[in-house]
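fyi for ur records
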Amino acid sequence: MSTPSHHLLSHRLVETNGIRMRIAEQGSGPTVVLCHGFPESWYSWRHQLPALAAAGYRAVAPDMRGFGGTDRPDAVEQYTQLHHVGDMVGLLDALGVERAAIVGHDWGAPVAWHAGLLRPDRFPAVAALSVPYSPRGSTRPTEGLARAAGGHFMYMLYFQAPGVAEAELERDVRDTIRRVLYGISGDAGDAAAWRVPRPPGSTFLGDMPAPPRLPPWLREEDVDFYTAEFTRTGFRGGLNWYRNLDRTWELMAAWQGAPVTVPALFVAGERDPVIARRRSDLPRLREAVPALRQSLILPGCGHWTQQERPVEVNAALLDFLRGLDGFAI
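which gave:
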């Protein structure tokens, strides 16, 4: 049986918020936008695009600002959360769509949360993977990270100085991709670099284990894809997201303590280092997201939620979407 043409994956460039953005799209029906994290691309949603399309949705996965086939503005200050949410609003305009559910993983999760916070009229539902929502607090983020690190190495602070992390990550792009995708996955187990506090002066990849063999969810052709993309683009665009922690915090002062009020889903891996670091946020998540429908923790799963556990993630996403007004198929 042949696949209907609207179910085939396609790519194109759209204009949004002053940049050109490459998108992957598949299917037709209510729109679901999929926002990736670092160091990834639209490709991290390769298992969700066909599943959403087959279920009757139009799935759209952009290369986010600074990544892949999307523009990479030179100025560091062009990577705040207001830019990223603006990119997503402009994407809906380019698609000719009034409203969409928005899904985000890793850095894409704060984009999804902020889209629901700032533009609930355009993004009436949020699904976030790996990173829970926490309202803007009173402490400057880099100061809070330094205090929490207590003198130990903290990768987000290491990423702040332009050029330092780029040099490390770009030295051997394939090795970087293999180490990062394996090192914070559920498969790294006790070898995972984040399990032990690291001394000041460490590097990002320093204790990141190289995989003895790729885990079952990651194929050599997947590594090939990411390697080719980051060999072409470098890592600076993605690293610039980290360099706007404080700038975004300053710009978001008017939303101090504001909850996300749209219906939401949260999914994370039990072995995700983000969850290990922010476990105390999880019981309070419903206070910050009062319309949270489900908070799902996947046993044995690491950071790369939708790639490590596509079956469970797809099932949770579809269950969530079908329970929403205007998204039930």
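The chain has one domain: 5-322. thats all i got for now
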